[in-house]
Amino acid sequence: MTAPLPPRDRENLLVQLRSWPGARVAKESLVPSRGESAPALAFGYLGDIQLRLVFDLPALDQPIAVRPEDMERLDLTPGRAVALAASNVKRQGGVPHIASLGDGVYALKGKHEDYSPGYMLDRAFWRGQLEKFPRGLLAALPRRGLLMFAPAGDPLVEQELARQAGRIAAAAGSAAVSQCLFRFDATGWNVHSDLPKPSPAALAAKAVPPEDSIEVEAAAEDHDGSDLDKAASGQKILIYSIVLGFVFNAVTRAGAHPAIALALTAALAVYSLLGVVRLGSGLGKSTGATIAFMVLSFVPLANIVTWIVLSVQATRRMRAAGWSVGLLGARE
């Protein structure tokens, strides 16, 4: 006996983001799909992204397509249905988790991977991010279940997002979603550019399996909140080191005993090196780069410049992950 289908009601209405087979959509809109092979209710949304409305529950093997008669029964227009589905994604998926993929690039994830890209429709989240990054944000959906983003304005970070997303999209096969890079600003989402196509050699060297997320998940685990914790503690140590440096200089000039001054200087040097090591580790710096930063820490003036540069990089990473950063360091 076949098990009864779950109720097709508003609480189970969700939205999936898929590849759009039609002409690119210039601005955010709902362009109906046409043709016998088109999903029951799917719309061209932005660029080469398609929105699909479905009913879904954890107990289902696969979601159920929403049909026109469902819309009529639930008294929903396409716009209201998409807004409701996006709200359900947020309600069921919980507060999105930001996982670092390295070099200033992040993934936005909810409880249900297949619906994580639906957070692209969470206007409140992106407006909150826009307050932290007035120059805007860039995002990519290279394959199903993966929404990547980075703050706009830093060419190196923008290039890294495009590079990572382009490589993942090229290796995603049938799971590929979008070949575009998108920009969010005060006007909403817009198409920013096409993703670069990696060379065959680069793709073969670091291919992402088309039907799972082994490499991406490993990257997220290697660069998650624990790395940000290291960066935050290292940044605070360096901030305190700068303040203590001024205090120790004042004590020395006030005529402190040479032995005391030497002891204080040595203690400060060890303390600051700890900060450099933790900050370098949290930012994913190579061993060679971290050693160079440690050497520069012993050079007058160059040490201050080095610490400030590291601190600024840490601030960018942490703010991109939603941390609040003040004069004395960061707090989640």
Structural class: alpha+beta
Rg calc: 25 Å
Helix content: 40-55%
Low-confidence stretches: 206-225
Count of individual beta strands? 13
Spatial ordering of strands, largest sheet: 6-7-9-8-10-11
Q: What sort of overall outline do the alpha carbons produce when their principal axes are compared?
A: elongated
Count of helical stretches: 10
Mean of the pLDDT scores? 81
The description of the largest β-sheet is: 6 strands, antiparallel
SSE string, helix = H, strand = E?
Answer: EEEEEHHEEHEEHEEHHHHHHEE
Question: Structurally, how many domains make up the residues?
Answer: 3
Description:
This protein folds into 3 domains: 11-93, no CATH class; 97-222, no CATH class; 225-331, no CATH class. It is built from 10 helices and 13 strands. The termini are far apart. A hairpin with a 2-residue loop joins strand 6 (97-102) and strand 7 (105-109). It has a 6-stranded antiparallel sheet. Strands 1, 2, 3, 4 and 5 form a 5-stranded antiparallel sheet that branches. The model is unreliable at 206-225 (pLDDT under 50). The radius of gyration is 25 Å and the shape is elongated. Helix 7 packs antiparallel against helix 8 (258-282), helix 7 (225-253) packs antiparallel against helix 10 (302-320) and helix 8 (258-282) packs parallel to helix 10 (302-320). The protein is α+β, with helices and mostly antiparallel strands.
